[in-house]
Specification:
The protein has helices spanning 3-25, 47-67, 71-89, 95-114. With 125 residues, it is an all-alpha fold.
């Protein structure tokens, strides 16, 4: 595959998965304004801490992934968030229920391994 094709593919992967992740994360911002904060707490670290970590993984990290800034670092919280969703929150659910989280998890791992590509802020060539 040509280098330009790979770079375009990485851009589409970043835009697609980063953008779709935002559709899951942005609505969760509203939970910050509840008093008290009530959010699923599968790891037992507290509702507020879980919500903040989820927002980092589903809002902050995807924005960084989309623009290609600190992309490899940004994929880590995004992948961890999706790993927790698939393997902890939906552990007992059917594959069809956890499939979306697994697809996001795999995509963010691929972006981590491949890097952001030429069409990113990270590209310094």
């Amino acid at each position: 595959m040509k280098s330009s094709s790979i770079n375009l593919a990485l851009l589409l992967l970043r835009l697609g998965f980063g953008g779709f992740m935002l559709t899951h994360g942005i609505p969760k911002i509203n939970y910050l304004f509840q008093s008290p904060i009530k959010f699923t707490n599968p790891l037992g670290i507290g509702d507020t801490a879980t919500l903040l970590l989820t927002l980092i993984g589903e809002v902050v990290a995807p924005i960084l992934i989309i623009i290609g800034f600190k992309t490899k670092w940004a994929t880590i919280p995004a992948a961890i968030t999706m790993g927790v969703a698939a393997f902890v929150v939906h552990a007992k659910d059917s594959l069809s229920t956890k499939e979306r989280a697994l697809l996001f998890f795999i995509a963010f791992v691929v972006i981590f391994l491949a890097g952001p590509g030429k069409y990113s802020i990270d590209d310094r060539k």
